[in-house]
Amino acid sequence: MFPKGSQLHLLPLSTKHEFSQLRRSAFTLADGAQTEDAAAIAKLVLESDPRTLPEALYRPTIKWTPELVDKVLKRLWNHGPKALQFFKHLGRHPAYTHSPSAFDHAIDIAARMRDYNSAWALLARMRSLRRGPIPRTFAILAERYVSAGKPHRAVNLFLSMHNYGCRQDLHSFNTILDILCKSKRVEMAHDLFKTLRNKFNADSVSYNIIANGYCIVKRTPMALQVLKEMVERGISPTMVTYNTMLKGYFRNKQLKEAWEFYLEMRKRKCEIDVVTYTTVIHGFGVAGEVKKSRRVFDEMVKEGVAPSVATYNALIQVLCKKESVESAVVVFEEMVREGLCVPNVTTYNVVIRGFCHVGDMERALGFMGRMEEHGLRASVQTYNVLLRYFCDAGEIEKGLEVFGKMGGGECLPNLDTYNVLICAMFVRKKSEDLVVAGKLLMEMIDRGFLPRKFTFNRVLNGLVLTGNQEFAKEILRKQSKCGRVVRRLKL
Protein backbone atom coordinates (compact mmCIF):
# COMPACT_ATOMS: atom_id res chain seq x y z
CA MET A 1 0.00 0.00 0.00
CA PHE A 2 0.92 3.66 -0.18
CA PRO A 3 2.80 4.71 2.96
CA LYS A 4 0.43 6.00 5.60
CA GLY A 5 0.64 9.68 6.30
CA SER A 6 3.02 10.34 3.43
CA GLN A 7 0.40 11.99 1.18
CA LEU A 8 2.13 10.20 -1.69
CA HIS A 9 -1.18 8.99 -3.08
CA LEU A 10 -2.77 12.45 -2.99
CA LEU A 11 -0.25 14.21 -5.17
CA PRO A 12 -0.77 14.58 -8.91
CA LEU A 13 1.61 12.84 -11.23
CA SER A 14 4.49 14.98 -12.39
CA THR A 15 4.30 15.86 -16.06
CA LYS A 16 8.06 16.18 -16.16
CA HIS A 17 9.71 13.86 -18.67
CA GLU A 18 11.54 10.98 -17.04
CA PHE A 19 14.30 9.00 -18.61
CA SER A 20 13.46 5.31 -18.40
CA GLN A 21 17.05 4.29 -19.12
CA LEU A 22 19.56 6.53 -17.43
CA ARG A 23 22.81 4.75 -17.80
CA ARG A 24 24.49 3.91 -21.01
CA SER A 25 24.45 0.15 -20.73
CA ALA A 26 27.48 -1.83 -21.72
CA PHE A 27 27.36 -2.11 -25.49
CA THR A 28 25.91 -5.34 -26.82
CA LEU A 29 25.14 -6.62 -30.28
CA ALA A 30 22.69 -4.23 -31.87
CA ASP A 31 19.10 -5.29 -32.51
CA GLY A 32 17.89 -5.60 -36.06
CA ALA A 33 19.65 -6.31 -39.31
CA GLN A 34 23.14 -4.88 -39.91
CA THR A 35 24.40 -3.78 -43.30
CA GLU A 36 26.18 -6.28 -45.51
CA ASP A 37 29.21 -3.97 -45.45
CA ALA A 38 29.55 -4.26 -41.67
CA ALA A 39 29.23 -8.06 -41.81
CA ALA A 40 31.81 -8.33 -44.59
CA ILE A 41 34.27 -6.02 -42.82
CA ALA A 42 33.89 -7.86 -39.51
CA LYS A 43 34.62 -11.12 -41.30
CA LEU A 44 37.63 -9.50 -42.99
CA VAL A 45 39.02 -8.33 -39.62
CA LEU A 46 38.54 -11.76 -38.05
CA GLU A 47 40.27 -13.59 -40.90
CA SER A 48 43.04 -11.14 -41.84
CA ASP A 49 46.63 -11.31 -40.69
CA PRO A 50 47.24 -8.31 -38.38
CA ARG A 51 50.19 -7.30 -40.58
CA THR A 52 48.05 -7.00 -43.72
CA LEU A 53 44.89 -5.66 -42.05
CA PRO A 54 45.78 -1.94 -42.45
CA GLU A 55 46.15 -2.36 -46.20
CA ALA A 56 42.75 -4.03 -46.37
CA LEU A 57 41.10 -1.30 -44.29
CA TYR A 58 42.61 1.51 -46.37
CA ARG A 59 41.07 0.31 -49.63
CA PRO A 60 39.48 3.26 -51.45
CA THR A 61 36.38 1.14 -52.12
CA ILE A 62 35.43 1.27 -48.42
CA LYS A 63 33.65 4.50 -47.53
CA TRP A 64 34.14 4.85 -43.79
CA THR A 65 31.42 6.57 -41.78
CA PRO A 66 30.89 6.72 -38.00
CA GLU A 67 27.76 4.58 -38.40
CA LEU A 68 29.62 1.85 -40.31
CA VAL A 69 32.48 1.79 -37.80
CA ASP A 70 30.02 1.49 -34.90
CA LYS A 71 28.31 -1.46 -36.60
CA VAL A 72 31.61 -3.23 -37.19
CA LEU A 73 32.68 -2.72 -33.57
CA LYS A 74 29.36 -4.11 -32.36
CA ARG A 75 29.83 -7.19 -34.53
CA LEU A 76 33.34 -7.65 -33.14
CA TRP A 77 32.16 -7.03 -29.58
CA ASN A 78 32.79 -10.59 -28.42
CA HIS A 79 36.32 -10.65 -29.84
CA GLY A 80 37.85 -7.78 -27.89
CA PRO A 81 41.45 -8.00 -29.20
CA LYS A 82 40.30 -8.03 -32.83
CA ALA A 83 37.90 -5.15 -32.19
CA LEU A 84 40.65 -3.01 -30.65
CA GLN A 85 43.03 -4.01 -33.44
CA PHE A 86 40.47 -2.81 -35.99
CA PHE A 87 39.93 0.44 -34.06
CA LYS A 88 43.69 1.08 -33.76
CA HIS A 89 44.48 0.52 -37.44
CA LEU A 90 41.50 2.50 -38.68
CA GLY A 91 42.51 5.36 -36.37
CA ARG A 92 45.53 5.91 -38.62
CA HIS A 93 43.42 6.21 -41.77
CA PRO A 94 44.38 9.42 -43.62
CA ALA A 95 40.77 10.33 -44.48
CA TYR A 96 38.87 9.19 -41.40
CA THR A 97 38.79 10.21 -37.72
CA HIS A 98 37.03 8.18 -35.06
CA SER A 99 33.79 9.59 -33.66
CA PRO A 100 33.06 9.92 -29.91
CA SER A 101 30.77 6.89 -30.25
CA ALA A 102 33.56 4.74 -31.70
CA PHE A 103 35.89 5.79 -28.89
CA ASP A 104 33.20 4.87 -26.37
CA HIS A 105 32.82 1.42 -27.94
CA ALA A 106 36.59 0.85 -27.83
CA ILE A 107 36.88 2.07 -24.23
CA ASP A 108 34.02 -0.20 -23.23
CA ILE A 109 35.65 -3.22 -24.88
CA ALA A 110 39.03 -2.54 -23.26
CA ALA A 111 37.46 -2.04 -19.83
CA ARG A 112 35.36 -5.18 -20.22
CA MET A 113 38.62 -7.09 -20.68
CA ARG A 114 39.88 -5.24 -17.56
CA ASP A 115 42.62 -3.66 -19.63
CA TYR A 116 42.22 -0.35 -17.83
CA ASN A 117 45.55 1.01 -19.08
CA SER A 118 44.31 0.75 -22.66
CA ALA A 119 40.94 2.20 -21.70
CA TRP A 120 42.56 5.26 -20.14
CA ALA A 121 44.99 5.60 -23.05
CA LEU A 122 41.99 5.67 -25.39
CA LEU A 123 40.32 8.31 -23.22
CA ALA A 124 43.50 10.42 -23.36
CA ARG A 125 43.62 10.01 -27.15
CA MET A 126 39.97 10.95 -27.37
CA ARG A 127 40.67 14.13 -25.41
CA SER A 128 43.74 15.05 -27.48
CA LEU A 129 41.61 14.85 -30.63
CA ARG A 130 38.90 16.94 -28.93
CA ARG A 131 36.39 14.13 -29.40
CA GLY A 132 35.53 13.98 -25.72
CA PRO A 133 35.33 12.51 -23.20
CA ILE A 134 31.59 12.96 -22.81
CA PRO A 135 29.35 11.94 -19.87
CA ARG A 136 28.58 8.62 -21.55
CA THR A 137 32.32 7.80 -21.61
CA PHE A 138 32.49 8.08 -17.83
CA ALA A 139 29.28 6.07 -17.45
CA ILE A 140 30.89 3.26 -19.46
CA LEU A 141 34.02 3.22 -17.29
CA ALA A 142 32.04 3.52 -14.07
CA GLU A 143 29.83 0.59 -15.01
CA ARG A 144 32.85 -1.54 -15.88
CA TYR A 145 34.55 -0.71 -12.59
CA VAL A 146 31.41 -1.67 -10.68
CA SER A 147 30.97 -4.95 -12.57
CA ALA A 148 34.62 -5.76 -11.75
CA GLY A 149 33.94 -5.24 -8.04
CA LYS A 150 35.49 -1.77 -7.84
CA PRO A 151 32.54 0.49 -6.93
CA HIS A 152 34.70 3.01 -5.05
CA ARG A 153 36.75 3.59 -8.21
CA ALA A 154 33.49 4.25 -10.06
CA VAL A 155 32.45 6.85 -7.48
CA ASN A 156 35.89 8.49 -7.55
CA LEU A 157 35.68 8.59 -11.34
CA PHE A 158 32.38 10.44 -11.15
CA LEU A 159 33.80 12.89 -8.61
CA SER A 160 36.83 13.61 -10.84
CA MET A 161 34.99 14.04 -14.16
CA HIS A 162 35.63 17.78 -14.18
CA ASN A 163 39.40 17.13 -14.22
CA TYR A 164 38.95 15.73 -17.72
CA GLY A 165 36.92 18.62 -19.06
CA CYS A 166 33.50 17.09 -18.38
CA ARG A 167 31.41 18.74 -15.69
CA GLN A 168 29.16 16.74 -13.42
CA ASP A 169 25.46 17.57 -13.62
CA LEU A 170 22.17 16.11 -12.42
CA HIS A 171 22.04 13.57 -15.23
CA SER A 172 25.56 12.24 -14.55
CA PHE A 173 24.71 12.18 -10.83
CA ASN A 174 21.61 10.08 -11.53
CA THR A 175 23.66 7.85 -13.82
CA ILE A 176 26.21 6.90 -11.14
CA LEU A 177 23.39 6.29 -8.67
CA ASP A 178 21.67 4.04 -11.21
CA ILE A 179 24.84 2.05 -11.89
CA LEU A 180 25.42 1.45 -8.17
CA CYS A 181 21.80 0.54 -7.47
CA LYS A 182 21.49 -1.91 -10.35
CA SER A 183 24.62 -3.69 -9.10
CA LYS A 184 22.94 -4.10 -5.67
CA ARG A 185 25.07 -1.45 -3.98
CA VAL A 186 22.10 0.65 -2.95
CA GLU A 187 23.51 1.65 0.44
CA MET A 188 26.60 3.14 -1.19
CA ALA A 189 24.33 4.91 -3.69
CA HIS A 190 22.07 6.19 -0.90
CA ASP A 191 25.05 7.60 1.02
CA LEU A 192 26.27 9.39 -2.12
CA PHE A 193 22.73 10.62 -2.76
CA LYS A 194 22.37 12.09 0.75
CA THR A 195 25.76 13.79 0.46
CA LEU A 196 25.21 15.42 -2.93
CA ARG A 197 21.44 15.71 -3.43
CA ASN A 198 21.38 19.43 -2.57
CA LYS A 199 24.36 20.19 -4.80
CA PHE A 200 22.69 18.63 -7.83
CA ASN A 201 19.07 19.43 -6.89
CA ALA A 202 17.93 15.81 -6.83
CA ASP A 203 14.69 15.27 -8.75
CA SER A 204 12.06 12.55 -9.03
CA VAL A 205 14.44 10.50 -11.19
CA SER A 206 17.03 10.52 -8.39
CA TYR A 207 14.53 9.36 -5.76
CA ASN A 208 13.07 6.72 -8.07
CA ILE A 209 16.55 5.30 -8.67
CA ILE A 210 17.23 4.91 -4.94
CA ALA A 211 13.77 3.44 -4.34
CA ASN A 212 14.35 0.98 -7.19
CA GLY A 213 17.71 0.08 -5.68
CA TYR A 214 16.03 -0.96 -2.45
CA CYS A 215 13.39 -2.88 -4.41
CA ILE A 216 16.13 -4.77 -6.26
CA VAL A 217 17.55 -6.02 -2.94
CA LYS A 218 13.99 -6.75 -1.72
CA ARG A 219 13.80 -4.03 0.91
CA THR A 220 10.45 -2.51 0.01
CA PRO A 221 9.95 -0.74 3.39
CA MET A 222 13.12 1.28 2.74
CA ALA A 223 11.92 2.05 -0.80
CA LEU A 224 8.68 3.43 0.66
CA GLN A 225 10.68 5.48 3.14
CA VAL A 226 12.67 7.04 0.30
CA LEU A 227 9.47 7.91 -1.59
CA LYS A 228 7.93 9.35 1.57
CA GLU A 229 10.93 11.65 1.91
CA MET A 230 10.57 12.59 -1.75
CA VAL A 231 6.98 13.73 -1.18
CA GLU A 232 7.92 15.61 2.00
CA ARG A 233 10.47 17.57 -0.03
CA GLY A 234 7.75 18.67 -2.42
CA ILE A 235 8.68 16.47 -5.35
CA SER A 236 5.68 14.92 -7.09
CA PRO A 237 5.72 11.20 -7.83
CA THR A 238 5.51 10.09 -11.45
CA MET A 239 4.17 6.93 -13.06
CA VAL A 240 7.73 5.62 -12.88
CA THR A 241 7.53 6.06 -9.10
CA TYR A 242 4.40 3.94 -8.83
CA ASN A 243 5.60 1.33 -11.34
CA THR A 244 8.92 1.04 -9.49
CA MET A 245 7.13 0.30 -6.23
CA LEU A 246 4.72 -2.12 -7.89
CA LYS A 247 7.57 -4.07 -9.46
CA GLY A 248 9.36 -4.07 -6.11
CA TYR A 249 6.44 -5.80 -4.42
CA PHE A 250 6.32 -8.46 -7.12
CA ARG A 251 10.08 -8.97 -6.99
CA ASN A 252 9.80 -9.52 -3.23
CA LYS A 253 6.88 -11.97 -3.77
CA GLN A 254 4.54 -9.64 -1.87
CA LEU A 255 1.59 -10.44 -4.14
CA LYS A 256 -1.09 -9.19 -1.74
CA GLU A 257 0.67 -5.84 -1.30
CA ALA A 258 1.27 -5.57 -5.04
CA TRP A 259 -2.40 -6.15 -5.86
CA GLU A 260 -3.56 -3.69 -3.21
CA PHE A 261 -1.09 -1.12 -4.51
CA TYR A 262 -2.36 -1.65 -8.07
CA LEU A 263 -6.01 -1.27 -6.97
CA GLU A 264 -5.10 1.87 -5.03
CA MET A 265 -3.51 3.30 -8.19
CA ARG A 266 -6.77 2.72 -10.05
CA LYS A 267 -8.81 4.14 -7.19
CA ARG A 268 -6.69 7.31 -7.18
CA LYS A 269 -7.25 7.57 -10.94
CA CYS A 270 -3.60 7.24 -11.85
CA GLU A 271 -3.28 6.90 -15.59
CA ILE A 272 -2.40 3.21 -15.65
CA ASP A 273 0.03 2.77 -18.53
CA VAL A 274 1.38 -0.15 -20.54
CA VAL A 275 4.33 -0.52 -18.15
CA THR A 276 1.98 -0.93 -15.17
CA TYR A 277 -0.06 -3.61 -16.93
CA THR A 278 3.07 -5.42 -18.12
CA THR A 279 4.48 -5.41 -14.59
CA VAL A 280 1.28 -6.93 -13.15
CA ILE A 281 0.98 -9.52 -15.94
CA HIS A 282 4.56 -10.66 -15.47
CA GLY A 283 4.48 -10.44 -11.67
CA PHE A 284 1.44 -12.67 -11.21
CA GLY A 285 2.52 -14.99 -14.00
CA VAL A 286 5.95 -15.85 -12.58
CA ALA A 287 4.23 -16.45 -9.22
CA GLY A 288 2.10 -19.10 -10.94
CA GLU A 289 -1.16 -17.14 -11.12
CA VAL A 290 -1.51 -17.44 -14.88
CA LYS A 291 -5.28 -16.94 -14.94
CA LYS A 292 -4.90 -13.63 -13.13
CA SER A 293 -2.20 -12.60 -15.63
CA ARG A 294 -4.55 -13.37 -18.51
CA ARG A 295 -7.41 -11.43 -16.86
CA VAL A 296 -5.20 -8.37 -16.44
CA PHE A 297 -4.10 -8.68 -20.08
CA ASP A 298 -7.74 -8.81 -21.22
CA GLU A 299 -8.59 -5.88 -18.94
CA MET A 300 -5.74 -3.90 -20.47
CA VAL A 301 -7.08 -4.42 -24.00
CA LYS A 302 -10.62 -3.59 -22.85
CA GLU A 303 -9.39 -0.33 -21.33
CA GLY A 304 -7.92 0.68 -24.68
CA VAL A 305 -4.26 0.36 -23.68
CA ALA A 306 -2.41 -1.27 -26.56
CA PRO A 307 -0.07 -4.07 -25.44
CA SER A 308 3.57 -3.42 -26.31
CA VAL A 309 6.02 -6.03 -27.52
CA ALA A 310 7.29 -6.15 -23.91
CA THR A 311 3.75 -7.01 -22.74
CA TYR A 312 3.46 -9.87 -25.21
CA ASN A 313 6.94 -11.07 -24.29
CA ALA A 314 5.98 -11.11 -20.61
CA LEU A 315 2.79 -13.08 -21.25
CA ILE A 316 4.49 -15.53 -23.61
CA GLN A 317 7.29 -16.11 -21.10
CA VAL A 318 4.76 -16.75 -18.33
CA LEU A 319 2.85 -19.26 -20.47
CA CYS A 320 6.04 -21.08 -21.44
CA LYS A 321 7.12 -21.40 -17.82
CA LYS A 322 3.85 -21.93 -15.98
CA GLU A 323 1.38 -23.37 -18.49
CA SER A 324 2.56 -24.79 -21.82
CA VAL A 325 4.63 -23.75 -24.79
CA GLU A 326 1.61 -24.51 -27.02
CA SER A 327 -0.41 -21.83 -25.21
CA ALA A 328 2.50 -19.45 -25.70
CA VAL A 329 2.60 -20.20 -29.44
CA VAL A 330 -1.13 -19.40 -29.70
CA VAL A 331 -0.45 -15.94 -28.21
CA PHE A 332 2.59 -15.52 -30.48
CA GLU A 333 0.57 -16.30 -33.60
CA GLU A 334 -2.19 -13.96 -32.42
CA MET A 335 0.41 -11.24 -31.99
CA VAL A 336 1.64 -11.78 -35.56
CA ARG A 337 -1.89 -12.09 -37.02
CA GLU A 338 -3.28 -8.97 -35.34
CA GLY A 339 -0.27 -6.95 -36.46
CA LEU A 340 -0.44 -4.66 -33.42
CA CYS A 341 3.08 -5.59 -32.38
CA VAL A 342 5.94 -7.02 -34.38
CA PRO A 343 7.80 -9.81 -32.53
CA ASN A 344 11.38 -8.92 -31.73
CA VAL A 345 14.43 -11.08 -31.04
CA THR A 346 13.40 -11.43 -27.38
CA THR A 347 9.96 -12.74 -28.40
CA TYR A 348 11.50 -15.45 -30.54
CA ASN A 349 14.09 -16.28 -27.87
CA VAL A 350 11.36 -16.82 -25.27
CA VAL A 351 9.46 -19.23 -27.54
CA ILE A 352 12.68 -21.02 -28.57
CA ARG A 353 13.58 -21.47 -24.90
CA GLY A 354 10.08 -22.86 -24.29
CA PHE A 355 10.51 -25.49 -27.01
CA CYS A 356 13.98 -26.36 -25.71
CA HIS A 357 12.61 -26.78 -22.19
CA VAL A 358 10.16 -29.47 -23.35
CA GLY A 359 12.83 -31.12 -25.50
CA ASP A 360 11.35 -30.15 -28.87
CA MET A 361 14.64 -29.02 -30.42
CA GLU A 362 13.32 -29.43 -33.98
CA ARG A 363 10.62 -26.80 -33.48
CA ALA A 364 13.12 -24.60 -31.61
CA LEU A 365 15.40 -24.66 -34.65
CA GLY A 366 12.36 -24.04 -36.85
CA PHE A 367 11.52 -20.87 -34.94
CA MET A 368 15.12 -19.74 -35.27
CA GLY A 369 14.82 -20.11 -39.04
CA ARG A 370 11.51 -18.27 -38.98
CA MET A 371 13.14 -15.41 -37.10
CA GLU A 372 15.79 -15.03 -39.78
CA GLU A 373 13.14 -15.20 -42.53
CA HIS A 374 11.49 -12.15 -40.93
CA GLY A 375 14.72 -10.16 -41.05
CA LEU A 376 15.82 -10.65 -37.45
CA ARG A 377 19.35 -11.77 -36.71
CA ALA A 378 19.68 -14.46 -34.06
CA SER A 379 21.40 -13.04 -30.98
CA VAL A 380 24.10 -14.69 -28.91
CA GLN A 381 21.34 -15.49 -26.39
CA THR A 382 19.49 -17.43 -29.12
CA TYR A 383 22.52 -19.57 -29.82
CA ASN A 384 23.32 -20.02 -26.13
CA VAL A 385 19.83 -21.36 -25.37
CA LEU A 386 20.10 -23.98 -28.13
CA LEU A 387 23.64 -24.86 -27.20
CA ARG A 388 22.82 -25.25 -23.49
CA TYR A 389 19.85 -27.55 -24.10
CA PHE A 390 21.71 -29.71 -26.62
CA CYS A 391 24.54 -30.14 -24.11
CA ASP A 392 22.14 -30.81 -21.22
CA ALA A 393 20.52 -33.54 -23.34
CA GLY A 394 23.94 -35.12 -23.91
CA GLU A 395 23.98 -34.19 -27.61
CA ILE A 396 27.43 -32.63 -27.41
CA GLU A 397 28.12 -32.91 -31.15
CA LYS A 398 24.96 -30.93 -31.98
CA GLY A 399 26.00 -28.34 -29.41
CA LEU A 400 29.39 -28.04 -31.07
CA GLU A 401 27.63 -27.73 -34.43
CA VAL A 402 25.64 -24.75 -33.11
CA PHE A 403 28.87 -23.29 -31.72
CA GLY A 404 30.54 -23.69 -35.12
CA LYS A 405 27.90 -21.48 -36.73
CA MET A 406 28.83 -18.62 -34.41
CA GLY A 407 32.44 -18.13 -35.44
CA GLY A 408 32.08 -16.42 -38.80
CA GLY A 409 31.41 -12.90 -37.56
CA GLU A 410 27.63 -13.09 -37.77
CA CYS A 411 27.24 -13.70 -34.04
CA LEU A 412 30.41 -14.31 -32.04
CA PRO A 413 30.27 -16.44 -28.86
CA ASN A 414 30.36 -14.70 -25.49
CA LEU A 415 31.61 -15.73 -22.05
CA ASP A 416 28.44 -17.71 -21.30
CA THR A 417 28.87 -19.67 -24.53
CA TYR A 418 32.33 -20.82 -23.55
CA ASN A 419 31.34 -21.63 -19.96
CA VAL A 420 28.42 -23.82 -21.12
CA LEU A 421 30.55 -25.72 -23.62
CA ILE A 422 33.53 -26.21 -21.32
CA CYS A 423 31.22 -27.55 -18.60
CA ALA A 424 29.63 -29.94 -21.10
CA MET A 425 33.04 -31.36 -22.02
CA PHE A 426 33.30 -32.97 -18.57
CA VAL A 427 30.05 -34.97 -18.81
CA ARG A 428 31.35 -37.95 -20.79
CA LYS A 429 34.77 -37.96 -19.06
CA LYS A 430 36.53 -38.63 -22.36
CA SER A 431 40.13 -37.60 -22.93
CA GLU A 432 39.29 -36.06 -26.31
CA ASP A 433 36.46 -34.01 -24.78
CA LEU A 434 38.88 -32.52 -22.24
CA VAL A 435 41.25 -31.58 -25.06
CA VAL A 436 38.34 -29.72 -26.66
CA ALA A 437 37.72 -28.01 -23.28
CA GLY A 438 41.37 -26.94 -23.25
CA LYS A 439 41.13 -25.54 -26.79
CA LEU A 440 37.98 -23.63 -25.84
CA LEU A 441 39.77 -22.20 -22.82
CA MET A 442 42.65 -21.06 -25.03
CA GLU A 443 40.25 -19.52 -27.54
CA MET A 444 38.27 -17.61 -24.94
CA ILE A 445 41.49 -16.11 -23.54
CA ASP A 446 42.61 -15.10 -27.04
CA ARG A 447 39.26 -13.37 -27.49
CA GLY A 448 39.67 -11.27 -24.36
CA PHE A 449 37.48 -13.20 -21.91
CA LEU A 450 38.58 -13.88 -18.35
CA PRO A 451 37.93 -17.45 -17.23
CA ARG A 452 37.10 -17.98 -13.58
CA LYS A 453 39.78 -19.60 -11.40
CA PHE A 454 37.45 -22.58 -10.99
CA THR A 455 37.23 -23.03 -14.78
CA PHE A 456 41.01 -22.78 -15.18
CA ASN A 457 41.70 -25.27 -12.42
CA ARG A 458 39.04 -27.69 -13.59
CA VAL A 459 40.30 -27.82 -17.18
CA LEU A 460 43.95 -28.13 -16.18
CA ASN A 461 43.31 -30.84 -13.61
CA GLY A 462 41.14 -32.70 -16.10
CA LEU A 463 43.88 -32.62 -18.74
CA VAL A 464 46.48 -33.86 -16.26
CA LEU A 465 44.26 -36.73 -15.08
CA THR A 466 43.67 -37.85 -18.69
CA GLY A 467 47.35 -37.81 -19.62
CA ASN A 468 47.43 -34.49 -21.49
CA GLN A 469 50.20 -32.91 -19.40
CA GLU A 470 51.90 -31.12 -22.31
CA PHE A 471 48.70 -29.38 -23.33
CA ALA A 472 48.10 -28.49 -19.68
CA LYS A 473 51.54 -26.87 -19.53
CA GLU A 474 50.74 -24.86 -22.66
CA ILE A 475 47.54 -23.55 -21.09
CA LEU A 476 49.39 -22.86 -17.84
CA ARG A 477 51.70 -20.53 -19.74
CA LYS A 478 48.60 -18.70 -20.97
CA GLN A 479 47.29 -18.03 -17.47
CA SER A 480 49.64 -15.08 -16.92
CA LYS A 481 47.84 -13.22 -19.70
CA CYS A 482 44.59 -13.11 -17.81
CA GLY A 483 45.93 -12.96 -14.26
CA ARG A 484 44.30 -16.16 -13.09
CA VAL A 485 46.33 -17.98 -10.45
CA VAL A 486 46.14 -21.75 -10.82
CA ARG A 487 46.31 -23.68 -7.57
CA ARG A 488 46.41 -27.31 -6.46
CA LEU A 489 47.94 -28.46 -9.74
CA LYS A 490 50.79 -30.94 -10.05
CA LEU A 491 52.31 -31.42 -13.47
From TrEMBL:
Which residue ranges contain the repeat PPR?
Answer: 169-199, 203-237, 238-272, 273-307, 308-342, 344-378, 379-413
Keyword Repeat assigned: yes
Gene3D superfamilies from the xrefs? Tetratricopeptide repeat domain
Arranged from A to Z, the UniProt key words for this protein are:
Repeat
Alphabetical list of InterPro entries matching this protein: PPR_rpt (IPR002885), TPR-like_helical_dom_sf (IPR011990)
> What family is reported?
Belongs to the PPR family. P subfamily.
> Would you tell me the protein name for this molecule?
Uncharacterized protein
- Output the lineage of the source organism: Eukaryota, Viridiplantae, Streptophyta, Embryophyta, Tracheophyta
